[in-house]
């Protein structure tokens, strides 16, 4: 009996050590790569200048990441899998909705400055569902003795890639409009801009002063400025503020000039309802065209190839006609995760900028995003499993869904902030501190997940 107790205790200790190793080692690997990027780009060392990191970011965005997504998602996806994987993109919406609720609670408890009310909600709600989950999955699956089996890497990358299009749609629609400068804030900024415009005219050169944060996840986003991207367009539109002349906002009160003989009654019958017209104008000024970027294009092509059996056999497989091309793409895909972590290291080198958000609100967002939301995520996974929403017996599937609750805020929010000219320094500072503390929160929750919620086969 005593020998049995000692044997059980020893097995539990060994199992506990394995759980800690499986959780901590992947984070340490990623941290090591990030430190390389931090050291190489540090101003005192400056072995690699900022311009090189921006070029690397463009390569990651245009080449490495699309190759990674295409190779692994294309090999794994089938029409049947798309039906079974439905909860992965839905979970992005669920986690964002829960994050919005947490963001509102943070604003009520921490009371940020009024102009950063929506910003606080956004930074709490929208997590990084792209590069960081891909990096964590790649690192966890790197060892042959990983807890998810032989197909861990390919299947994990496919799961993590399958939800990216939802995140990009949310960012290009909901986040874009929520990051609109508040009216009062915009009036102050507009006055300062006019004064600075009179005092000096900047020389336009290659903008190396632009923070790497802006280029880290979506290079070229800031260059896609539109006429009203830095103005409170929606506030003006729906409040009908008088005294503001704007050629692209129609005068809702004036009837059309064509056909002056038309009676007022016929105008009322044929005219588009005012609210419908306003919503249409907002939709026209939504940068939905920015969604089809290289990583999303890679996902769509991978899905198209994966669900067509005849086409899939031509592209993938040892006897495939395009084996040479896919092998070449696979080689380039291997550079995606190291490049992403090096870029994050370069981003952290710039340090946090000055923020008017306040220490209490900054701490509140970090705690809610990195420590409270993962607990809720575990509850969501358990509830979804109970309702048979998840793929039966697929622990890697559950793990990737869990990762969507554990990541820091999306780096892409920093690019949107720069594009809209709103809370740029606050986004930079908050993303810096979130990524610093995410190293500890990720390790903590991976240990908890592997110890208590992972069912080994």
Q: Any descriptors?
A:
disordered N terminus, mainly alpha, single chain, 68% helix, 457 residues
Number of beta strands:
0
The overall average pLDDT, rounded, is 78
Order of helices and strands: HHHHHHHHHHHHHHHHHHHHH
End-to-end Cα distance, whole Å, is 28 Å
What does this structure look like?
This protein is mostly helical. It has helices at residues 2-41, 50-76, 79-84, 87-110, 117-125, 131-140, 152-162, 164-178, 183-199, 212-215, 233-239, 264-270, 274-284, 294-307, 309-315, 323-333, 336-349, 359-386, 395-403, 412-420, 424-452. The chain is globular and about 65 Å long.
Which helices and strands appear, and what pairs or packs with what?
Elements: H1 2-41, H2 50-76, H3 79-84, H4 87-110, H5 117-125, H6 131-140, H7 152-162, H8 164-178, H9 183-199, H10 212-215, H11 233-239, H12 264-270, H13 274-284, H14 294-307, H15 309-315, H16 323-333, H17 336-349, H18 359-386, H19 395-403, H20 412-420, H21 424-452
